[in-house]
Every structure is written in structure tokens, then in C-alpha cells.
Design a protein that fits this description.
mainly beta; Neuraminidase; 5-stranded antiparallel β-sheet; 4-stranded antiparallel β-sheet; 29 strands; globular
Length: about 375
């Protein structure tokens, strides 16, 4: 996802030490006594689903760049469940059960934070439409199809340039189940289950009536839960029930091979990607934590260290959000990555002491601190030579 303010760091919140030795501010988005889950983020706006009362899930949001706007009411009907939100710019999609026992996809316009967001019904089919995602004017979801002789999940999409008149088209309606879509511009990725296995597929829907299909990964091991940014597709790669890794592939190269993002012992799940940063949830420390990986510097870093579970991460620029069980019930938390973890150059510049791809007074301060600590001339004689 995207954000216009990459390097903003919050000056308040709970402080945790990052693996780079810098401080990251960790903050609850909207502390409340209701259960919150499945956050998404774009352009500084965080959205999530919240359990408000008996059997009533609603969708709320907060704009970190406009805190005066307060809590954004996106979908708050007390008689209807709204779940699994996804955001792009000022549009939020979610699944909605206005019609009993029938999930549909709606999109809300949150461009005016002073009013309850107007929403538009995108699907009104008889069966369920769930797990919606959005990028630009394209909304994608998985659609439950019943046909003569069977039933399965397919991938559908809609052009919502005019949300009152969405143009709906089939992305993948072949036999077998297609599920868990993700979208970036005209590239849609998803998992397809066939032959007792799940593989990842990519579809170019620039020509909506003639989509172009391409296999991301097809082998004997299951691959699931893809995410995409430009040409980079990330996904879960299951070695066994107790060993799941994160892999990625650069689709700009026709014959490229997948490469490892995280393969620590245990489970690495639920990846998301924004620009050159990938995040996921990881149980290598016995509890769930959020980790990240920088595709440019090739460095992994730990984002959360609290002893409770942190799960369901999403990222936009250097803003990371997740569900956090340090509160009871769980709330949504966020942090801005420090400049070292989010660095965007493959090799530090001359004089770049902290590795953030910039040479400034912070580097001078670190150099002076090392010199004062060591007090040897030349500095290369110091044990902690930079």
C-alpha cells in the first residue's frame, strides 16, 4: 500500500527496542473494550473490523495524518455484520451480510471524514462474495459459484470507476477453488487448489475480456495467501504443518525463480508487501511477533517484541499495523519503521554510519559518540570500528 509521508515517526506511545538499536513507537490505533481484528492501511488511514455488540461487526477507521477527524464510521449498521475491510486511498471495501446468510461486497467512500461514509453495493448475487481487496478502481473478491454438478470458489472483479454501476467480470472461473485474491493495478494474484495442492497464479486484467494467466509457482508443496506489489508476489510456502516459510518471486523476469524471504524454524504466515518492505507474522519466539524484510538491503528485522501475540500485519510505506493481544480484548496497533529498517539503498553511503541511506547529523552524532567512547586516533583502532 502507499503513504505520502514515509519518514514520519510518532512521538508518543510504548517504546520498544528494534533490532537496529533504535527506538520505535508502538501505539494502539483506537483503544477500546471491543475486540478488533483484520486491519488494513493505506495513505496513513488505518481500517479494521470491530465487535461492537452481540453478533455485530462494524468497520471503523482512523486517519493518522488528520487526527482531528477522530474515529471514522465506515460501516456501522447495528443490525448487519461488516467484516474484512481493505483500503485504497479514500475507498474501503468489505463484506456485508445485509441479506441474511448471504455475504456481498460493498465499497465505502471516506473522502469526507465528517459524515458516515456512503457505501455502494457491488455484488448482489445469491451466493457468498467474500475476502474483497482493492487497488485503484479495481475491486476483487472470491465468489461462491453453484453450477450443474458441483460448486466451487472463483475469482471475480469489478471496475468501480462509477461505483453506482460497477462493471463486473470473471478473473478465473475455471474448475477447482480459487481463493484469497490480492491486487496491484492490473495484476491479480490468488491461490488455486487442484490435485490436493494449492499453487499461486497471476492474472493480467488490463484487457478485462481477455485476461492473461501466468503461474507464479507450481510444485508439489502448497503455496497460499499471496500478496503483491508491482511485479513482486509474496506468499506462504508450506514445508510441513509445523514449518511454513515466506517466499517471493519477481514476475518482471519471465524465467525467474522464487526466492526465500523468511525460513526460520516454525511458522511464518500472512505476508503483506509495500514497496521494498515485506511483513509477516512469525512464531519463532514461541509467541506470534511481526517481522519485516527489506528487499533492497536484504536485511530481516523484528518489529514487535511484546510477549503477547501480534498477528494479521499490513503495511503501507513505512507504516505497519497489526492485531495485538497485549490488550484484552485484542486491539489494533501500529508503528512507523525506523529509517534503518526502511532504508532504500543497497549499500550505505560513505559516512552513512547508521545505514539509513542518508548522511546527516545523526551519523555525525554516532561517529562522535564512538570517538568519545574509544578515544583512540585513528578511529580504526577502536574495537567497534565503523
Amino acid at each position: 500500500m502507499k503513504t505520502h509521508c514515509i519518514w514520519r515517526v510518532c512521538a508518543y506511545g510504548i517504546l520498544l527496542m528494534s533490532t537496529t538499536g533504535l527506538l520505535m513507537a508502538v501505539q494502539a490505533v483506537s483503544p477500546f473494550s471491543h475486540f478488533q481484528e483484520f486491519p488494513d492501511v493505506d495513505n496513513g488511514v488505518i481500517v479494521w473490523a470491530e465487535w461492537v455488540q452481540n453478533n455485530d461487526w462494524d468497520i471503523y477507521g482512523v486517519d493518522l495524518f488528520n487526527p482531528a477527524a477522530g474515529l471514522i464510521e465506515i460501516a456501522v449498521d447495528p443490525e448487519i455484520n461488516q467484516r474484512y475491510p481493505a483500503i485504497w486511498f479514500d475507498r474501503v471495501v468489505y463484506q456485508d451480510d445485509t441479506f441474511i446468510d448471504d455475504w456481498d461486497v460493498r465499497v465505502a467512500d471516506i473522502s469526507d471524514p465528517n459524515i458516515v461514509a456512503p457505501n455502494y453495493l457491488i455484488t448482489d448475487f445469491t451466493e457468498d462474495q467474500i475476502n474483497p481487496v482493492i487497488h485503484g478502481n479495481t475491486v476483487v473478491w472470491q465468489d461462491y459459484i453453484v453450477f450443474d454438478g458441483g460448486e466451487d470458489w472463483d475469482i471475480y472483479a469489478a471496475d468501480i470507476t462509477d461505483p453506482n454501476n460497477p462493471w463486473i467480470f470473471v478473473v478465473d472461473g475455471y474448475s477447482n477453488d480459487q481463493q484469497m485474491p490480492a491486487v496491484y493495478r492490473n495484476r491479480i494474484v490468488y491461490q488455486e487448489h487442484s490435485n490436493s495442492n494449492s499453487d499461486i497464479w497471476s492474472v493480467d486484467v488490463w484487457l478485462k475480456d481477455i485476461p492473461q494467466y501466468e503461474t507464479v509457482i507450481d510444485n508439489e508443496l502448497p503455496q497460499t495467501y499471496p500478496a503483491v506489489w508491482e511485479d513482486i508476489v509474496v506468499y506462504e510456502h508450506e514445508i510441513s504443518a509445523t514449518d511454513v516459510d515466506i517466499y517471493a518471486r519477481d514476475m518482471s523476469q519471465p524465467n525467474s525463480e522464487p526466492f526465500i524471504i523468511a525460513d526460520s524454524p516454525g511458522l511464518q504466515l500472512d505476508p503483506d508487501i509495500s514497496g521494498h518492505i515485506i511483513v509477516w507474522q512469525d512464531d519463532r519466539n514461541t509467541d506470534w511477533d511481526i517481522y519485516g524484510y527489506n528487499l533492497i538491503t536484504k536485511k530481516e528485522f523484528r518489529i514487535t517484541t511484546d510477549g503477547n501475540h501480534q498477528t494479521q500485519p499490513a503495511i503501507s510505506g513505512s507504516l505497519v499495523v497489526w492485531k495485538d493481544a497485549r490488550d484484552d480484548p485484542a486491539n489494533i496497533y501500529y508503528t512507523w519503521l525506523d529509517e534503518t529498517d526502511a532504508a532504500d539503498c543497497p549499500n550505505p553511503l560513505v559516512g552513512d554510519i547508521n545505514g539509513d541511506c542518508r548522511v546527516n547529523l545523526n551519523d555525525y552524532a554516532l561517529l562522535a559518540q564512538e570517538w568519545l567512547t574509544c578515544a583512540l586516533d585513528p578511529i580504526s583502532a577502536c574495537a567497534n570500528e565503523f
